[in-house]
Structure formats: structure tokens, C-alpha cells
Amino acid sequence: MSDLVKQSAHDHEGHNHSISADADCRYLWLALITLGAFMIAEVVMSFMTGSLALLSDAGHMLSDVGAIALALWTIRLVARPPKGALTWGLRRVEIISAAVNGITLLVVAGIIAVEAIRRLFEPPEVDGGPVLIVAAVGVAVNIVVAWLVARANRSSLNVEGAYQHILTDLYSFIGTMIAALIIMFTGWVMADVIASLLVCGLMVYAAWNLLRDAGRVLLEAAPKGIDLEEITEHILELPHVQRVHDLHVWSVSTDLPALSAHVVVDDECFKDGHIPQLLDQVQDCVAGHFDIEHSTFQFEPLKHGAHEYHTHP
């Protein structure tokens, strides 16, 4: 192994980045079956009552079912071991799944918003009684489903994406209940349309959060809470370290941060065999202070700077 470069790829015993796939799948399957059954009943009731809010709930619930199904499939893909050119396996699929969930929320919100705006000019007749009953059942169902999904590993953006779908659906049903009560007591059917538009707003907000977090990973930005200047300061405090440059921190997936850096050290370190000890110290530093256990360091003598190309601060 080179004296200059050594990687701490997977040599930390007991360290395991994998999510609890069996537990997550069990909770997600229960949530999927519960939502699927209620979604079918809700579609039927929306056509019987003429409620757009109820139909928007059903449309959102369809996206919930798809989100959970996607989360289940993603968990299976992520669990596959690295192979060939896929040196990290399929861990990044988790982030793609979250992005798909965010885009789906935006699409559903757009469809509902268009129909809601049309109904502002052509208000339909809405039977508030059945809408109230279905919405009340929907609140109960979504509370159960939200609890089930929350029991899974929500630190994964994949599971968080499904959870956000369900949470906004719960708010949607609450809005539908309020709209139904207003219609029953006042006859003001526009409450149904306004409830739908409010639900759209919640969908857009949830979608923005998912796409923002997924985008950070896909653009290989430093994970939240990681300060590159602070990492540099910690490394510079170690003996024999003169300078740190080309420091990069990114996330392969939500639970797998990685780091690489060039570390300039005293020339004597390459003569007295001190590099292995220094490598241990640097790795322990970033793992202990910043919880980054996948790190690669290139150690350089002072004179090596003349041979660096396109250095990064």
C-alpha cells in the first residue's frame, strides 16, 4: 500500500450502514394494504357524492400507495451488495426514490389545483354527509398508517418521502372534514374547493422539502450540519499537519457520508514511518467528531505543492 494514500473504506469493525430492511418492510407492507383498501372505497364515495376534496384525497392516496410501493422496492435494491462498476451498490436509488416522491406530489397538486380553479367558476353540488363520514374514517386510517411508517427508518429519505405523502394526506382529510361540516351547516359548497387548494399547498410544501434534501445529495453538497472549516481546523490541530486542501464531503445516501482530503505534513513523517500513525489519528478525528467513517486521505510533503493541478482550497 502506498505511503501517500490509504483509504478507510470498510475497516471499522461493527460499523454497518444498512437500514433495518426486514422491520421497515413489515411496517410498510401493513401501511400499503391499509391504504389500498381505503383508497378504493374513497374513489367510489367521491363519485357518489360529487366531492372534489374527496376525489383529491383519493388521488393523493393513490400517490401514497405508489410512494410506499416505491419505498419497498427501493429497500430491496439498496440491500444488494456492490458489484462490478456499482462500487457503492444501489444505495443512491434511495435518493432517486425520494426525488420521484417529491415530483409525484407536485404533479398531483397541479392536477387538483387545475380542477379546483375550474370549479371556482362552476361550483358542483356536494353532499356533505357522506363526505364527512368518509373523511373521518380517512383521518383514522391515515393516523394508523402514519404511525406505521414512522416506526420505520425515517432517517432514510426513501422512507421519509413515503411518510410525507401520508402526512399531507392526513391534513387533507382533516381539511375535507372541515369542508363537509361547512357544507352541511351553511350549504356553502365552495368550502370543498378551498379545502382542495389548501391541500395542494401542503403537497407543494412537502414536495419542496423532499426535492431540496434529495437535491443536496444528488449535487454532492456537504451533508447538513457538516462544516468544512471546522473539519479543517480539527485536522490542523493534529501533530505534523501543515495544511489541508482539496477537502470534499458528500453523501452517497442519507446514512452514508464520505470524505476525501489532501493533507500536507512534515517531510520527516515520510522518513521515520510516521504516516500510518498519522492516518489513524486523522481517521479517528473525522469519525469521532463528525461521524464520517468512509474517508480517504492523501498525505503530501511540503514540496509536493508544485506538482498539484487544479487544487481546491
The largest pleated sheet is described as:
4 strands, mixed
- Helix share of residues? 55-70%
Radius of gyration: 26 Å
User: What is the molecular shape?
Assistant: elongated
Please provide the count of β strands. Answer: 4
- Which structural class fits the helix and strand makeup? alpha+beta
The CATH class of the largest domain, by name, is Mainly Alpha
- Determine the number of helices (DSSP H or I, runs of at least 4 residues): 8
Q: Report the sheet-strand fraction.
A: 5-15%
Strand order of the largest sheet: 1-4-3-2
Unreliable runs: 1-19
Q: In CATH terms, what is the fold-level topology of the largest domain?
A: Alpha-lytic protease prodomain-like
Distance between the termini: 27 Å
Q: Report the average pLDDT across residues.
A: 83
CATH architectural arrangement of the largest domain = Up-down Bundle
CATH superfamily of the largest domain: Cation efflux protein transmembrane domain
The number of domains = 2
Q: What is the H-and-E element order?
A: EHHHHHHHEEHE
Domain Cation efflux protein transmembrane: 28-219
Domain Cation efflux protein cytoplasmic: 223-301
Pfam families: Cation_efflux, ZT_dimer
Protein name: Cation diffusion facilitator family transporter
Please outline the helices and strands.
Elements: E1 5-7, H1 21-49, H2 52-78, H3 93-121, H4 128-150, H5 157-186, H6 190-218, H7 228-236, E2 241-253, E3 256-265, H8 275-290, E4 294-300
Relevant terms:
alpha+beta; Alpha-lytic protease prodomain-like; Alpha-Beta Plaits; 8 helices; elongated; disordered N terminus
